[in-house]
Write a structure and sequence with these properties.
The protein is mainly beta. It has 2 helices and 29 strands. Among the domains are: 171 residues, Porin (Beta Barrel), CATH 2.40.160; 198 residues, no CATH class.
């Protein structure tokens, strides 16, 4: 009831408004907001394994309202899942009062140069996120905001303190566990006295996060207060930058880690160097039993408190996204290197610049030995088993003002037993998929407002010999054409062809046609086509996406 009273107060402030980019309510303040709705129809299609959808039409809708006056802000978000799109957790449509409609996010905030207080829902991140990262990713159906109280305090120049307490969002309800946390960050370059040399930027920080959840297990003795902490540093000198963070968590047996009583820890290192026409970055991480949730019984990516970086390139080419990487919080050792080099205009290649990018990443299992049902020994190094390996190259070149060419090659190895949770960590059931991917993207400027873009993609796939075939897709080919009339119209047609499927009857085409219209803050997109089943990942967090066939409609608008 309190949520709806708050919503009513905020909405009443809009009675005196007129449409525009941020509404001025006489002398009261400014109201702004946004709308997003995604609607999809689902037609029967046994050839691609599309599941039956009794409702035929599913939809997700979000409406944000924000009121601002001086140092005071208040906001809320209305959400409606009727019912959730396939791949989004169905509990969004059945939790709470079971209607899939509610206002799960609302807050009031006051902030000045020294003090900042938020009551209600908030998002927050400490350091790289290894002990706390609260954020929203609608494409995954992910929202782990906390409902409670947050205080921020800047008592002196360069020092920032944050503290909070509350309960985490669990669909339209709240988590069973109580989350508490604090963070301190000191920017040494902002501290008076000139303690750093000119041109150097540096900061240090420390964080603590804890969860209280009563022990109701009849067999195990579970810790009710679970503490995680981290320490970090960041330094930047001229064109060099480096950051490091170490995190530790006490033993926290739960469903996600198989009731392990081992403590957890993680290390993350990232360094980069840039100069004219060149950029180099390297990163490494080691993660051991660092899954942390507001409810020890949660699975999947629900009620996650922390975030563990994937350290793999997030590919956007459509075919290769069939095999994305999902971070393994129970244990992994990874490294990534990235090189970007620009051959300038006027070189031996002519009057146009050429950019070359090379990237490589590898994720190994940890070197561990099981000692009993609840414990294991973990050495610092990695085991021979590779969860994921990716080597890729990309070349971009402009030819005058009217033509641009992009060529890309990707070679990866993908352990579907681990990434898709198809088998135990010490078991090989479906094995490793090896993929080679190539794409050519051509962009033509036809006139001042008209352009044409095309993609030609191919992916060859091999399965590990002697294993079961969980995914029988095999080789793929794809062609895309996009015609744009700037600034408002976009027409796209593409077809994915699974010509290498091990089952001849399922060597299917996946055609799609889409039209998008953009006007100021309004975007409307509609289309029809087949969608292949697979895994959707954003930043190492993944969800399954079932195959489907039907119409789509998406509307976004900000005011």
């Amino acid at each position: 009831m309190k949520r709806f009273v708050f919503a009513g107060v905020v909405l009443c402030l809009g009675v005196y408004t007129t449409f525009g980019q941020g509404y001025t309510v006489e002398d009261l303040g400014v109201i702004s907001g946004s709308l997003q709705t995604d609607v999809q129809s689902y037609l029967p299609d046994s050839l691609i394994g599309a599941p039956d959808v009794p409702e035929t039409i599913l939809s997700n809708t979000f409406v944000n309202i924000l009121f601002t006056r001086g140092k005071f802000t208040a906001g809320m978000r209305f959400e409606s899942y009727q019912n959730p799109l396939l791949g989004i957790d169905p509990r969004y449509g059945t939790s709470g009062e079971g209607t899939g409609i509610g206002i799960p996010y609302r807050y009031i905030r006051y902030a000045d140069d020294v003090f900042d207080v938020t009551a209600g829902n908030f998002y927050e991140q400490f350091g790289s996120g290894m002990v706390l990262r609260l954020y929203e990713e609608r494409n995954l159906g992910f929202d782990n905001s906390i409902d409670g109280l947050r205080l921020k305090f800047a008592p002196t120049e360069g020092l920032h303190l944050t503290g909070f307490i509350g309960r985490q969002r669990s669909f339209f309800e709240l988590s069973e566990g109580i989350i508490r946390g604090a963070d301190a960050t000191l920017h040494l370059d902002e501290v008076g006295g000139g303690i750093l040399p000119d041109g150097m930027l540096a900061s240090v920080g420390a964080s603590v996060v804890s969860r209280f959840q009563a022990d109701q297990d009849p067999f195990l003795n579970l810790p009710e207060n679970v503490l995680a902490w981290s320490a970090r540093g960041n330094v930047s000198v001229s064109n060099f930058q480096a950051e490091f963070e170490y995190a530790h968590k006490i033993n926290d047996p739960g469903v996600a880690n198989g009731d392990s009583y081992n403590s957890g820890n993680a290390q993350y290192l990232n360094a980069s160097w840039t100069d004219t026409g060149i950029g180099i970055s390297v990163a490494a991480k080691r993660i051991d039993n660092m899954d942390m949730r507001s409810d020890r019984t949660a699975t999947g990516f629900t009620q996650q408190v922390n975030y563990l970086p994937a350290l793999t390139k997030q590919h956007t080419w459509r075919l290769i996204t069939l095999y994305p990487y999902a971070t393994q919080p129970t244990g992994e050792f990874g490294a990534q290197a990235d090189l970007t080099f620009t051959i300038p205009k006027g070189s031996f290649l002519g009057d146009d610049a050429t950019t070359i990018t090379a990237n490589a990443s590898v994720i190994h299992a940890l070197d561990t030995t099981r000692t009993d049902q609840f414990h294991y020994d973990a050495r610092f190094g990695w085991a021979d088993r590779i969860f994921y390996q990716d080597v890729n190259f990309e070349v971009q070149r402009k030819f005058g003002k009217d033509f641009k060419l992009t060529l890309s090659y990707i070679n990866l190895k993908y352990d579907q037993d681990v990434i898709e949770r198809r088998a135990a960590i010490n078991e090989t059931k479906y094995g490793v998929i090896s993929a080679n991917f190539v794409v050519a993207e051509l962009w033509f400027k036809l006139s001042r407002t008209h352009s044409l873009r095309s993609e030609l993609q191919w992916m060859g796939v091999k399965h590990q010999p002697g294993v079961h075939l969980a995914l029988q897709n095999g080789d793929w080919a794809m062609m895309l054409l996009e015609y744009s009339v700037s600034p408002s119209w976009f027409f796209t047609v593409f077809d994915e062809y699974n010509y290498g499927n091990a089952t001849v009857e399922q060597q299917a085409h996946y055609p799609n046609v889409n039209v998008a219209f953009v006007h100021n803050a309004l975007r409307v997109q509609t289309g029809y086509g087949r969608v292949r089943g697979g895994i959707l990942c954003v930043g190492g967090i993944c969800r399954p996406v079932p195959a489907s066939n039907g119409f789509t409609l998406g509307v976004t608008y900000t005011f």
